[in-house]
Amino acid sequence: MRRSTRIAPSILSADFAELGAAVDSLVAGGADYIHIDVMDGHFVPNLTIGPAVVKALRKRTDRTFDTHLMISPLEPLLPDFLDAGADIVTVHAEAGPHLHRSVQRIREAGRRAGVALNPGTPASAVDAVLGDIDLVLAMTVDPGFGGQSFLRAQCAKIAALRARIDESGREIDLEVDGGITDETAAEVRAAGADVLVAGSFVFADGLEGCAGRIRRLREAAP
Ligand code: DX5
Ligand code: ZN
User: Most Cβ neighbours (<10 Å): which of 128, 145, 160, 180?
Assistant: First the structure.
């Protein structure tokens, strides 16, 4: 079943000196999910947000926190992110050998579990866990930084993931992340995505511009 588009702005592109205000602007601007990019300087070449920051932001809103963990090893830090109040916790299929165990831990904590795939990872990587997850995240850039160019060739994989999700009969979000603008949004939507992450596009006009840019994404990919 085709679900309505949800917009998940990434606070990675906000001014980190005013993260709280950024979350407030996204909530007021109608963001469906707040996407939080967690990078460890090891799995990806950048270091960003830890569980203490997620916990602090949690006090500002009950809007869905969509936490994208780009960390490896994953297991030592996973409990801290579960305790910090993330709603969706997404782990990378490439981050370690025990994907199923990580997914189980997330669900046992009462959170929604997501699995992310790097551009070089085939759609079949989710097959073994499709019965246990709530979200699949297809990366449309190699993770690590905001503002990279959209990898158009990933649209075929998005379509392949859409077919797998539909076949499963389960309610699973298909999220895309990287290089999403009001132009590429329509392409990924046509390929089957239903949650759009966007960082640099949403924050390009500062906090005052967030609401208008969220609206532009929604209009471009209804
Ligand atoms: C990339 C992150 C993305 C990133 C998206 O590693 O996972 O969420 O912030 O940024 P843009 O929208 O600027 O590509
Ligand atoms: Zn992300």
Answer: 180
